[in-house]
Amino acid sequence: MTSKRETILATLHARLQTLPAPVLRGEVLPERIPATGMIILRDGKPGEPEVTLSPLTYFYEHRAELEVVIQAGTGRDALFDALAASVGAVLAADRTLGGLCDWVEAEAPEPVDLPIEGAAALKAAVIVVILHYATGDTLV
What angle is formed at CA 32 by the lines to CA 11 and CA 42, rounded to 5 degrees? Predict the structure, then answer.
């Protein structure tokens, strides 16, 4: 039996597959970044739930993370912005992930430029995606 948390994260990962850049889940950043960039979905933290007792329900604001990475000699800013905007468009297209969540929203990224000796620089950021959902069991 798959937990609601895993079902939501798997659905988010599947939705992100429509983006122009490859989207991995829980992987190590590879040595080579495709020209279109790369996104790695990290499961993040479900946080401390709010609880109601009748019926027993746990309300989570789960903070998943998307590591967005662009590697380019020029045009990194525009490429990063386009990829981040496409993430936003995927999330805005269905804010409930098909009814699995009450609401899905992303926080604004804080990109950084990372110079790489002997290679094109990276522009990277973590985009936190907040998944609001309720479940009757913390493990299921």
Answer: 30
77 vs 70: CA distance, rounded Å: 9
User: Which of 101, 126, 99 is closest to 39 using CA atoms?
Assistant: 126
pTM above 0.90, yes or no: yes
pLDDT in tens, 48-63: 999 999 999 999 999 9
Would you identify the CATH topology of the domain 4-135? Alpha-Beta Plaits (3.30.70)
89 burial class (0-12, 13-18, 19+ CB within 10 angstroms)? exposed
Asked whether the bond before 109 is cis by omega within 30 degrees of 0, the reply is no
Closest residue by Cα to residue 62 from 40, 90, 39, 43: 43
Q: Where are the alpha helices (DSSP H) in the chain?
A: 4-16, 76-93
